[in-house]
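Why this split exists: single-chain examples teach little about how molecules sit against one another. For that reason, every record in the complexes split bundles all components of an assembly together and asks for one structure covering all of them. Below is a record exactly as it appears in the raw files.
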Amino acid sequence: MAVADGAKLHLPENVVVSRLDELANWCRKNSLWPMPFATACCGIELMATGASKHDLARFGAEVFRFSPRQCDLMIVAGRVVMKMLPVLQRIWLQMHEPKWCISMGACASTGGVFDTYAVVQGIDRFIPVDMYVPGCPPRPEQLIQAIIDLQDKIQREGTITGREFDTASRQARKRALVEIIDPMGLDASRNPVLQRELAANAESFVAGS
Amino acid sequence: MPFTPPPVDDVLAALTDRFGGIESSVFRGQTRVVVPVEQAFETLGFLKDRGFDLLVDVTCVDYLDYRDSPMQMPACGGHRYGLIYLLASTTTNQRLTLRVFVDDPRPTVPSATPLWEAANWLEREVWDLFGVRFEGHPDLRRLVMPEEFTAHPLRKDYPLQGRGERHNFPVITRENS
C-alpha cells in the first residue's frame, strides 16, 4: 500500500507500526535467560532476586539455566580468581549470540577488597561487560535496575537477522581464541603455554624423584 | 570446656631415650618438639609406631624478617621455613606438634607419604605455596595454584599483589566472541 507524501495512513484499532528489528529487540529484552556465574555472596543476592519476593519473572529473566548453550545473559556474581577465569571465558565463548554480561558487585567489577595475587581485578579486563552493579553485595533492587537498564540497551541495538554477528572474519577470530583458551587445563599436549611452563620448570615438577 | 589433650610426657621420654636431647616446649597445654631435618623422617616414623596414627596437618611458616628473628623457641631459631606436623593418636587422644626448620636455597625435607597417605595433598599444598620440596613424594605437583603458576605465593618475599600473573590472560572482546 503506497502512501503519498503528506497523506495520512489510517490504521485499524490495536495495530502498531514498527520495524522488525525493534520487534526482535523487544522479544530479546523481555526473555533474558541468565547464566548464574555465582562465586560468592553476591550469588546469594542473585538467588534472592530470582525468588518470589523480588520476582525476576516480572522482567522475563527468571529462567536461570546452568548450561551456557541455553543462556544469553551472564551474571558474574562474586570474585573471580586466576583458576576460575579460563572457565569464565570458556563459558562466555560457549554462549550463543546475542549475549550480554552483567558484572554484579564490587569484586566482579574491580576485585573489591581482594587485591591479591590470585584475584582478577575486574572481569572486564578479560571479557566484555554491559552493566556494572555496585554494592557489596548489591541489593536485589540494584540488580533488577541493572537488568532494566540492560533492557533499554538491548532495545536500542541489534537486528532481527543478527547480521552484526555474522561475518566470516568474526567467526575465524572466535575459533582462534578458543584454541588459546581451550583447556588452559589439564591436557598439556594441547596447551603450548603450559608446555613452555612445564619445560621451564621441569626440575621443580619432578622434585623428589 | 575446651578440650585438653592428655599429657605426652611418656612420648617425650621415649623420644629422649631414642634420639638423645629433644628440644621441646609447652604452650597452653600443647607440646611441641623441634627436630633437625636429618632426623625428621625417623622421628615421624618413631612417633607413628608410638601410636600417633593420625596426621592432622602439615603446614609451614615463612619466618623471613620475623619480628625478633633469630630467636628462641617457639619461633624459628634463625631458620627461614618452619614446617609444622600436627600429630594425634586416635587411641590415647594425645596430641603432638613436630617442627622442622629448613632454609634456602633449596628447602627440602623427606616426605611423610610412606607413613601417612594423608601427607600427600598436605605436602603438595606446602610445596605449592612455600616451595618446600618433599623428597620421595610420589606426585609433587601444585595443588591450589594454577599449573602454569611459577612462584610460591605465601613466601614473605612474594609481593601481595603478585608479579602480574593475575593479568596474564587472553582478552576477549565483543569482536572476537
